[in-house]
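Protein entry
_____________
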Amino acid sequence: MGIDFASSGLSAALLDRATGQLHQIYWEAPQAEAWAAGPSFRIPSAAVLAETAPGSLGSEVTVKSVGFRQLALPAGEFLLQNFKLPLKVGIPYQREAGGMYEPLLQWSPLQAFSIAFPLQGVRALLATLNPSLQGQKFAGLGEILDSAPTRANFGGLPVSNLICRASGLTPETLDAALLDLQGVILGTPAGWSDAYRFNLREAVLGASLVASASQIFVVEDAIATLLAAVTPVKNATEVPPSAVDSALEGEEAAPLSVNASSFSGGTLILNAGAATVELALVELPENLQDLTRADFTCQSFAFAGNAFDQDIICQLLAKNETWGMSIDLPRPGHPDLPSRYQLQDRLQGSAFGLQLLEAAKHLKVILQHQESFALDIGQQHWDVKRKDLESLVLVPFVQQLNRELNALLSRAGMSPAGINQAICAGGMGAWPAIARWLRQKLPNAIVIQDQELEVDRDIFEIDNSALNSVSQSTNFSGKIGRVACGLASLALYPQILDVSQQQYSDFFLLWELMQVLGEETLSFQEILQLLERLGVNTRTCESRILRILEGTLPAGLVPAEEDFMLLAEESRQNPDWEAILAEPLFFEDVSLGYRLNLEHASVVREYLGKLASSSQQKLLEPLTIAWDVRTDTYR
């Protein structure tokens, strides 16, 4: 099963490896649910959480529902959405026995909670794919502390508000397949931390989709986007239900592969979603079975749909608003992550800020098809023009994107003229301006665009200035999960899997290095030989081992500097992290080699032990490979 957990929505697809048949998952709500709007191939990455008896020691946090955005929530409930980004910050752990799960996230100026909350939200979304959990509850992550001094226990997790089905499969056949899954494949932005991969696997195991972490694979989103385009899919012969036909609105007839047989040579993949723009370059061989992970050069740009929305607010709707921030507002088109995290915190902390965010999401769609749009929020009125959106927001974005592509071309040793095709996907990837820029940038390339925003066509002709009329009319259900199809298709190309990353996390490599090194200085080759004796295939991960020895701690062991703005003040002063960063773990003698800082190693070992004890996975052991793939490929 391929699962695309994106910032805005979740989609999934099921592949029968024996026949090559691919079945797209869709969700239905019980008819008793008043909000049920028919089947959906993509559900919002959203969860409604509720705290019972807040302020008491018996306070319990429960996931009430998942997969849709309620406009009005009862007292004591709150909506959790856009919670993909926090999962890369770190791995949840208890600083002390029975204490809070760190790190704490600053969600808004008045609300902070444990990273375990979004992890529980993902787990609840994934549980909708497990037929054995339909209408049932299962245990949570134990005791969680949020920003208040009260202890919050995760109660049972109801997942009965959504039922999953699959195009071309009877409910009985689907249930049998889901209860016998051989693998789950998820996507990740390029360069995101091992902590993110670890948290994804933890959520899959928590939803009981598979029994072992070795059955869970993670691949870059850009690679999955390519596989969705080049894989000729054998669709099942069964006719999908008529209800699904109405949701698709004609999209089912569109092939998942676009002239796959003609794809060859230099290929650019651009997937622009909500949190990042994922880029990759690859020289496609004639036989795709010859394609390996080493053929791809991947890059992630931390500016996409959400940042674009912020730029619409800062440049068009509230240009002179400082939001009470003591730092400069983010520059249009630039990641400027600390500023953006702080700005998002302020926007999410007020009703007006949330309305501005909602307005920005729709303006970027509407103004592609209208010259202007009149907008009212409360007593404020705007006449927003397309030309201003393009000059103040879109142009800076494309300029930065151009710089990123130049850097990627340089890294891959390819020229713009050598690109034969460019595949664009994601909400921002469907913009006509992206296609125009690529046609100028890549003179010999065919630009193939996934028109994901086409399903929003029912809002293009809106002339009502009331914001509510916009937010009610966006059609989310018809969006087909192309990336999920590509992720599922990885099972047909197992040689593309990054075997080294799958087998050996950076956390594991760090642990093993502390096992083999001591006070004696050893050369790099001697260290590799000792690791080989422990069974580590060092040929696949030499560069990562060297980076750790040279002082680069595994990403996600301690939150990255730019991610500290996502944390509550209490977590920013976490004594475990301060202790780890206080000294180098390895000492380097340029001519002789490396030795271990023994005293400091005990601090790191204790911390890794805390991470391992709070998880279902074996953090400090290698993962086996559940599929029959070569593990000796040099990468």
About this structure: The longest helix spans residues 386-412. The longest strand covers residues 9-16.
